[in-house]
Amino acid sequence: MSVPVLSGGCLCGHVRYEVRCEDPFVDYCHCVMCRKAGGGTVTAWIQVTPADFRVTAGEAAGYRSSERATRHFCPRCGAQLYMTDPAGKSVGVTVGTLDDPERIRPTVHGWDGARVSWLHIADDLPRFPADIPYDVPDEG
Ligand SMILES: [Zn+2]
Ligand SMILES: [Zn+2]
């Protein structure tokens, strides 16, 4: 059986991508930078290796949001699509830009200490006050 491929893209359709993933690591991030960059009060990310991610149409623009991360967004509509790190360790892809977000689900909350107090997601998933321990290079 082949590994599932999830497709996604920005709001205007200029940038399209594919993520190859089998049981991917998916996290909520409540950090301030994700909030500012995406405009939502929480952002969910799929983390995959660079080999399992490819842009299939258009070209995203990059913004180096910290020493640890560059955020890539559509230059036309501004949708935040994915994040890379300088070491090329992983690519984080925004769950909200998937064509079918129902195919995956988050398993952990990161930066729960920065979560806006009125946002309550009723689940029993593990919550980390800041970085998720095994996800340190991917956020910022
Ligand atoms: Zn766009
Ligand atoms: Zn974040």
Could you walk me through the main structural features you see in this protein, from its secondary elements to its overall organization?
With 140 residues, this protein is mainly beta. The chain has a single domain, classed as glutathione-dependent formaldehyde- activating enzyme (gfa) (Alpha-Beta Complex), CATH 3.90.1590.10. It is 5% helix and 35% strand. It has one helix and ten strands, in the order βββαβββββββ. The protein has one helix at residues 32-38, and strands at 5-9, 16-20, 25-29, 43-48, 53-57, 61-66, 69-73, 80-84, 91-94, 108-110. A seven-stranded mixed beta sheet has the order 6-7-8-9-4-3-10, with helices on one face. Strands 1-2-5 form a three-stranded antiparallel beta sheet, with no helix packed on it. A hairpin with a 6-residue loop joins strand 7 (69-73) and strand 8 (80-84). The chain is globular. One zinc ion binds next to helix 1.
Summarize it.
The protein is built from one helix and ten strands, in the order E-E-E-H-E-E-E-E-E-E-E. The protein has 140 residues and is mainly beta.
